[in-house]
């Protein structure tokens, strides 16, 4: 059956989006996105689009206007794919639909946040889409439960320059070189000021790690927090998530 991505129209479709969010993130009702808010934000100039096979919605993306400076920007607040449809590349297709939607309306920048310990999300955002993480936000949403258990909801904030050569090439499906850790030094206190590439290892296994080993999850969260904040304060951005002998490393570059 053909997959189609389109803007949501009927209230019942926004209800489906809410149910997908609950299934994907295992959120309690109190933390699930409000159907009324999704509808109102879309009506006021936001985007809510779903991926459909026939009448079945498999995933959705939701964003709203953001004006951080003089440029037109959208903040992409929600992206979810139902667990039974994950692994089919729907997240990428939803983001590329969002890119086309924004460019058609003169919007050249999209921002969003994600949990930096989720390797699949990091690979999608930084490697497949070529966005860049510039800010570290501590416990951004407070404790929300679901797949995040009792862990602080620290987030990377990423910036997706829709018309940059790298982003355009990736969006067009061109083969992109796999990022390399070549020349990157391991993070340590007191690094020389001229260092331009730094690697930071994170554990594999999130989000299951959040429930299976909470102390290890807390340790990993705080370790990345200290290192990412120190690097971003010095002008670094996280530009890739690289797997080296099955060990995940963030690459930070100036």
Q: Any descriptors?
A:
32% helix, globular, four-stranded mixed beta sheet, 29% strand, 7 helices, alpha+beta, Aminopeptidase, 254 residues, single chain
Describe the model.
With about 250 residues, this protein is α+β, with helices and mostly antiparallel strands. The protein has one domain (about 5-180): 3-Layer(aba) Sandwich (Aminopeptidase). It is built from seven helices and eleven strands. It has helices at about 10-25, 35-45, 90-105, 120-130, 165-170, 210, 215-235; strands at about 5, 45-55, 55-65, 75-80, 110-115, 130-135, 155-160, 185, 195-200, 235-245, 245-254. The chain has a seven-stranded mixed β-sheet with strand order 1-2-3-4-5-7-6, with helices on both faces. Strand 2 (about 45-55) and strand 3 (about 55-65) form a beta hairpin. The protein is globular.
SSE pattern, N- to C-terminal: EHHEEEHEHEEHEEHHEE
Secondary-structure arrangement, i.e. CATH architecture: 3-Layer(aba) Sandwich
Main beta-sheet annotation: 7 strands, mixed
CATH topology-level fold name: Aminopeptidase
Adjacency order of strands in the biggest sheet? 1-2-3-4-5-7-6
CATH class assignment: Alpha Beta
Number of strands: 11
Total of domains: 1
* Rg, Å, rounded: 18 Å
The best one-word shape is: globular
- The N- to C-terminal Cα distance equals 45 Å
Low-confidence stretches: none
Q: What topology does this entry show?
A:
Elements lengths: L2 E5 L3 H15 L9 H9 L3 E7 L2 E11 L6 E9 L8 H15 L4 E6 L4 H10 L3 E6 L17 E7 L3 H7 L13 E2 L10 E5 L6 H5 L1 H20 L3 E8 L2 E7 L1
Parallel strand pairs: 4-5, 8-9
Antiparallel strand pairs: 1-2, 2-3, 3-4, 5-7, 6-7, 9-11, 10-11
